[in-house]
Give the backbone structure.
Amino acid sequence: MGLVLHNAAMAQLWDLGVRGTSLDVVAAWKEALLLVALVFVTWHVRRLPAVKAADVLAASYAVVIVVYWLVPQDVLGGEATARGELLALRHHLFPVAAYALGRLTALAWQERGRVAGLVVLSAVVVAGVGLLDLAFVSLQAWRDSGVPGWFAEQLGLDYEGLSGLPENWVYNTGDEDNPIRRLVSTFLSPLASAYALVVALIYIVSRPFRWWWALLAVLLYAALLYTHTRAAFAALALGLVVLAIAQRRALPAVVAAGAAVVGAVFLVAYPSIGPTTSYTPDEIAWLRANAAREGEDRNLGRPFPGAEDDSTESHASNLREGVRTVLRHPQGYGLGNAGVVAKRTGVGIRAGESTYTELGVDAGIAGVVAFVLWSLAILVGLWRREAWLAAAFAAVLALGLQTDVIGIHWLAFTVWLAAGLALGLPRARASETGET
């Protein structure tokens, strides 16, 4: 629940004057709490769980990451700073620590069903706050908040096209008079919000039908639509199909088909029905200049880039280029040369967006292979124990093709923690009670 509120809380603290090193220390609460939890649970159980294939592969992945952290940058051709290396080390190992906590906690905690309840509660908060924000809070209020400062001055993420707010906060229709807002909620991101909603929706559909589940599903799906995140729509459909196969039920597949149709219709109608906003004169000037820099031929003669085809091509282009970079330099460049970490520390971004290409840049083919094998071992283990979590995990792995999913701390902690817990649950009990 704290991870749901993290970005919004940090932005508010920045606005109140807590900045620089002081805010860095406060923002590290999640890593500190995770470390304390690991130490506490390890001391409490005083033994290790029976070793599984996924445990060995998790350790192998962690070893690869640590080795790449220790290898000097100039040996691999990287340019990352020492701070960037530490940030990347934390980034890549966060899901490993969450998984380890889950595996250890399974030895001591019998009430595992509460994890799914907290997942749904998190999603309800995200959906409720996000929809209320769209209805009652203007984009100008966000421009005047601590959010631009938190991103730019604290995190080093300079966003220019929307007065310091991330550009993906609006859906650019190609018409400078008709930008449409997207739901960002407490995550301050339409992508992170959408992915949390997908995980919760998969759990809800996995439950026996009850009217209250139906009401929650409508709320969460409505919020998901307003994130306008097509990758999340596709991941939800994929996850529900996997759920249908795992549970041997037709209903999740039917819901997947219905959600896909509604999502497609909503995307077409969004420029007409979405919550409209407006650009400031400075934003319009920047966007026009950006369009000129990008080239009119690329944008099909439109002065305002940003419609559906541009977004799709951008994601596909980033993925292709990232794959080429990894194949050209399979040994990797060392930690800190990819994604948000490279952007924050001012070095060249050799790959971005995709979890797999970022791993390939930071830790070479060895890192990608170790992560994929670990992920597949988890997926196989979940399939035998917890159908909804296997479906959600498959959806998250698919999202990793175009998004750095382990860079979204809520996903990296919640999904991998739940996976560790579920792998500690006996198969018979899991199939009988549907816990975790």
About this structure: The two ends are 17 Å apart (CA to CA). Confidence is low (pLDDT under 50) at residues 296-309, 428-436. The longest helix spans residues 355-385.
